[in-house]
Amino acid sequence: MKEITIKNSKIRLVQGDITELETEAIVNAANAQLILGGGVAGAIRKKGGPTIQEECSKIGGTYVGGAVITTGGNLKAKYVIHAVGPRMGEGSEDEKLKNATLNTLKLMDEKELKSVAFPAISTGIFGYPVNRCAKIMISAVKEYLSAETKIEEVILCLFTDSDFGQFNKELN
Ligand code: AR6
What we know:
By secondary structure, this protein is an alpha/beta fold. 38% of the residues lie in helices and 22% in strands. It has a 7-stranded mixed β-sheet. Strand 4 and strand 5 form a beta hairpin. The N and C termini lie close together (6 Å). The site of ligand AR6 has 24 residues, from helix 1.
């Protein structure tokens, strides 16, 4: 199943490039310095233009597990939420990934945004296992959507077939 409903909200799995999505916000798999490097961040930087990094540099940084918001520059999405996932090996990775997911969703409600797309945070350059990421992120999203929220749609956007398969297995 590629979509489930939790109370008034939907969780949907899609495969592809997150920078092509038209949700109000897309999530960047960020680092604590908020310097847009490779992977999702690189794609956002290239397609979104320089204003996103400029806004990030003004904010200056956040903690691992935290999330901050900028505009989306030239992207279809109006906003980018920069969620800082853990680097594999630094300790307390599961808790930090859960916090990065929950803090993104809290920011969505604070800004009264209704639709967001996440990548598989930390599973690229940061080296976190995809199956573990699927477990943590899906359970955090379900937990959040089960309580009071105005978010209508949470998309989990997976880049590869195999990552999509692992998230799909976990959602079922
Ligand atoms: N759309 C969707 N998913 C993507 C895309 C895309 N365009 N490109 C890559 N992925 P990563 P991290 C997948 O490395 O591990 C950067 O330098 C990718 O296959 O983007 O959290 C930042 O600046 C993987 O499954 O993020 C940080 O320093 C997932 O997105 C650091 O990397 C996350 O991979 C963050 O590393």
